[in-house]
Amino acid sequence: MKLHYRFITILIRFLARILFGCRITGVENVPVTGALIAANHISVIDPPLLGASIKADVFYFAKVELFQNRLISAFLKSVNAFPARRGETDRKAWKTARSLLTSGKLLLFFPEGTRSADGQLQPAKPGMARLALGTGVPVVPAVITGSNRLKEVLLRRVKLRVGFAAPVSVADLRDDENRRSRCERLTAKVMEEIRRLKAEVEKN
Questions:
Q1: Where do the H-state alpha helices sit in the chain?
Q2: Distance (Å, whole) CA 95 – CA 74
Q3: Taking the complete model, does pTM exceed 0.90, yes or no?
Q4: Helix or strand or coil: residue 33?
Q5: d(Cα 170, Cα 58) in Å, to the nearest integer?
Q6: Which pLDDT score is estimated for 174?
Q7: Dihedral of alpha carbons 15, 18, 21, 24, sign
């Protein structure tokens, strides 16, 4: 782990706990290497908060527009982000993601594809399942709550919580199923776990 990446993640965890009372649970469920972290998405600060909750390098997709400025681009790359075009198939970004996973890295992924406007879970797109099935890595369902309501969190009216569930293994899916069926089953299983975990962490 790069020294500045470690420093940034420690700082984020410290500030999230002290200022916002953030509680992180289930981080022991995250494998040391080679896994997709599949989370709900409600705020622009979700990637750093989720990534900082894990005491290992986490890699991220980031919209390509953010890399147009050289200084911002250099910073994003230094904290493990790589560019991806939104709303279209980006073969280069997909290849990077596959390479990271097969080399044993952790990759954060938002199955819904975009932020939820009302904080509720939206239907998942097939990208997460395709990536997991294509690389054979497990999927760790994750959830974040309160990051879209920081003013209320600061006043302790809303809780900021991050949680991780046990990994979902692609090996548990039947090999005799066609690829589309396997994608649908994996997606449904992961989203069901995210929904269950969301209800669980909101109580604590």
A1: 3-20, 46-52, 70-78, 91-102, 127-135, 150-154, 179-203
A2: 20
A3: yes
A4: coil
A5: 20
A6: 65
A7: positive
Q: By C-alpha distance, which of 58, 30, 32, 54 is closest to 167? A: 30
Cβ distance 1 to 55 under 8 Å? no
d(CA 26, CA 141): 10
What integer pLDDT is reported at residue 45 of this predicted model?
A: 95
Q: Which amino acid is at 39?
A: A
Low-confidence ranges of the chain (pLDDT < 50): none
Average pLDDT, rounded, for the chain? 93
Residue 201 CA, distance from chain mean position: 16
Angle at 114 between CA 48 and CA 185, to 5 degrees: 105
Give the residue from 188, 190, 186 showing the smallest Cα distance to 172.
186
Q: Mind listing the pLDDT tens digit for each residue in 84-97?
A: 987 677 899 999 99
Phi-psi region of 189 (alpha: psi -120 to 50; beta: other; left: phi over 0): alpha
Count of positions (residues) in the chain: 204
